[in-house]
Write a structure and sequence with these properties.
about 20% helix; 5 strands; alpha+beta; 2 helices; about 110 residues; OB fold (Dihydrolipoamide Acetyltransferase, E2P); single chain
Length: about 110
């Protein structure tokens, strides 16, 4: 009986660790695009037209607002509480790019951004 219980605990821990690792990326990535600041959030519109919500490194991002930049970092998810007062609880997960470095590519964004 003890062996079965121990085996069950070990399998549960292994599955939990695997699930946590599945959500993490393999390492830093770099994306390039137009840096914007709107409603207290930095976003980067990449060359494919996808908007990335950025987090971290705000003091380094601010001087590059409106410029074409290259940012390096990792993708993660943040849980956002969207509950209205008096309503049932609602929470959503948002993909966020956690910036670790920024490099200016051009003083302006390409036409169309």
């Amino acid at each position: 009986m003890r062996k079965i219980l121990l085996l069950t605990v070990l399998v549960s821990v292994a599955v939990s660790v695997q699930a946590q690792n599945a959500g993490s990326s393999s390492g830093p990535t770099t994306i390039q695009g137009c840096l914007r600041y709107h409603h207290h959030e930095y976003t980067l519109r990449d060359n494919n037209g996808k908007n990335h919500q950025l987090s971290g490194y705000a003091n380094k991002l601010k001087p590059h607002t409106g410029h074409e930049v290259e940012v390096t970092g990792t993708e993660s998810t943040h849980t956002v509480n969207t509950t209205q007062e008096g309503a049932a609880s609602t929470v959503k997960e948002v993909t966020v790019f956690k910036v670790t470095s920024v490099k200016k590519i051009a003083d302006t964004c390409p036409t169309g951004d």
